[in-house]
């Protein structure tokens, strides 16, 4: 049950775009469309930003988008804003009915 | 609105036991799978366990299998985590989290309760 692989950190300037990758295997990310992304600000609970690869819950800005190709899912944030600075985690359902999270990516808005 | 409120955290010695609770409100608790997810200080999220909407199916992370037991009481809208043989590495904030209806995706989280295992 190794964690999904995410870059430890990414950064971008306000108004620009960044993409965070999340790599798993055919037993998790590649095998199901049950991939989700969470935003976590310091000291706060995670918040769902993307579900089922590319769907946004109500209230999440359309600047946030998700996609998947093979065993790798991606989260793209366009038009970066200061409040987007946070930790981001991907998660996937697995072939053993468990869940797995990525190691997390710290987003810095320059 | 959906609310999940954890309780029961605290400081406990290695080898001892602790029971966490999660009180749910604002939704039909008996229709959703629910999880425990933990986060060690300064670290990432680690999935711990899930229980199906009716309690018949339970799954655990390898790191807690045989030591932790997840359970629920739908009449009380409550989720539990019985933690035995606690280790220093179990120190973390423990979050209660809900699956979307009939979909294995966590959509709501509680605020967490801190468990510290230390001698």
List keywords for this structure.
heterodimer, A: 110 residues, mainly beta, six-stranded mixed beta sheet, three-stranded antiparallel beta sheet, 44% strand, globular, B: 119 residues, seven-stranded mixed beta sheet, four-stranded antiparallel beta sheet, 0% helix
Largest sheet of chain A: 6 strands, mixed
Structural class of chain A: mainly beta
What oligomeric state best describes the polypeptide chains here?
heterodimer
Task: Tell me the series of helices and strands of chain A, N- to C-terminal.
Answer: EEEEEEEEE
Question: What is the CA-CA span between the terminal residues of chain B?
Answer: 40 Å
Helix content range of the residues of chain B, please? Answer: under 10%
Gyration radius of chain A, to the nearest Å? 13 Å
Please state the overall shape of chain B, judged from the principal axes of the Cα atoms: globular
User: What shape does the CA trace of chain A take?
Assistant: globular
Your description of this structure?
The model of chain A has no long low-confidence stretch (mean pLDDT 97). In chain A, strands 1, 3, 4, 7, 8 and 9 form a 6-stranded mixed beta sheet that branches. A 3-stranded antiparallel beta sheet of chain A has the order 2-6-5, with no helix packed on it. The termini of chain A are far apart. Chain A is built from no helices and 9 strands. Chain A is globular, with a radius of gyration of 13 Å. Chain A is mostly beta strands. Chain B has 119 residues and is mainly β. Chain B has no helices and 11 strands. In chain B, strands 2, 4, 5, 6, 9, 10 and 11 form a 7-stranded mixed beta sheet that branches. In chain B, strands 1-3-8-7 form a 4-stranded antiparallel beta sheet, with no helix packed on it. Chain B is globular. Chain B starts with a strand and ends with a strand. The mean pLDDT of chain B is 97.
SSE layout and pairings?
The complex is a heterodimer of chains A (110) and B (119).
Chain A (H helix, E strand, L loop, with lengths): L8 E4 L5 E6 L11 E6 L6 E4 L13 E6 L2 E6 L8 E8 L5 E3 L3 E5 L1
Parallel strand pairs in A: 1-9
Antiparallel strand pairs in A: 2-6, 3-4, 3-7, 5-6, 7-8, 7-9
Chain B lengths: L2 E5 L2 E3 L5 E8 L8 E6 L5 E7 L6 E3 L7 E6 L4 E6 L8 E8 L6 E4 L3 E5 L2
Parallel strand pairs in B: 2-11
Antiparallel strand pairs in B: 1-3, 3-8, 4-5, 4-9, 5-6, 7-8, 9-10, 9-11
